[in-house]
Amino acid sequence: MTRLELRVEVEAPPATTWAALTDWARQGEWMLGTTVRVTSGDGASEGSGLSAFTGVGPIGFTDTMRITAWEPPVRCAVVHTGRLVRGTGEFVVVPRGDARSELVWSEDIALPLNLAFAPGVKWSLRRFAAFAREYRTP
User: Where are the annotated coiled coils located (predicted)?
Assistant: First the structure.
C-alpha cells in the first residue's frame, strides 16, 4: 500500500469547492487523463458506485469505487473495488474563511505495477484549484 496525502489551496468558498469536486461528469476537465462516471446510485450518497478510466484513447485502466462516506460539503470517502486498484481514498474540504478553502486528497492505495501517481495528482490538483475558482453549478 502507498500512502498519499496532498493539499491545495482553493480561491473558492467551501460549498463551491465541494460542488466542483463532486461534479463527477466534469472531473476529466481537471484530472489528468481521467473520465469519471456514476455506475450505481446517484453519485451523491453512500453506496453509490463510480468508475474512473485513466489513460489515453483505449490504453489505460478502470478504477471502480464505492462511496463509503458522504458528508457534504466536507468529506467524501471511497473504497477502490477494482482488480487493479485497491485501497481507500478520501477528499476533505477545509474552510479557510468565507471565500477560500483547502482540498485535502488522501489515498491508501495499491497500484498496478507500483505506478507512481503522485506527480499526476499534484498537477491535477493545481488544475482543480483553477477549475473550482471558476466553477458555476449547473
Answer: none
CA torsion, points 37, 3, 87, 104, in degrees to nearest 10? -40
pTM of the model: 0.91
For the stretch 63-119, pLDDT in tens is 999 999 999 999 999 999 988 889 999 999 999 988 999 999 999 988 765 566 778
Q: What are the beta bridge partners of residue 60?
A: 55
Cell of 108: 491508501
**CA–CA dist 107, 67 (Å, integer):** 14
Q: Which of 29, 30, 48, 26 is nearest to 39 (CA)?
A: 48
Extents of the domains making up the chain: 2-134
- Tell me the CATH number for domain 2-134: 3.30.530.20
d(CA 40, CA 78): 14
C-alpha–C-alpha distance, residues 109 and 85, integer Å: 7
Beta strands in 11-131 (DSSP E): 34-40, 49-56, 59-71, 75-81, 86-95, 101-110
